[in-house]
């Protein structure tokens, strides 16, 4: 598989240059982390049954 950079320097094709710029500018948002967390907490609270005292 080809590397995006040659000897750690400049990208060696137009496609790789575009890809390098796009991935360098990408920043993850909070929604991909927050949404699964909220869903898992909601599911956990929905299915939780406290233990009965003996």
Overview of the structural elements:
By secondary structure, this protein is mainly alpha-helical. It is built from two helices and no strands. It has helices spanning 14-25, 31-47. The chain is rod-shaped, with a radius of gyration of 23 Å. 0% of the residues are buried. The model has no long low-confidence stretch (mean pLDDT 80).
Q: What percentage of the residues does DSSP assign to strands (E)?
A: under 5%
Can you count the beta strands? 0
Query: What would you call the structural class?
Result: mainly alpha
Give the biggest sheet: none
Could you give the order of the helices and strands? HH
Please outline the helices and strands.
Blueprint lengths: L13 H12 L5 H17 L7
Short description:
It contains two helices and no strands. With 54 residues, the chain is mainly α. It starts with 13 loop residues before the first helix and ends in a 7-residue tail after the last helix.
């Amino acid at each position: 598989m080809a590397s995006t950079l040659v000897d750690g320097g400049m990208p060696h094709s137009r496609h790789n240059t575009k890809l390098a710029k796009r991935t360098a500018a990408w920043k993850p948002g909070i929604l991909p982390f927050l949404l699964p967390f909220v869903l898992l907490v909601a599911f956990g609270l929905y299915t939780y049954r406290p233990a009965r005292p003996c």
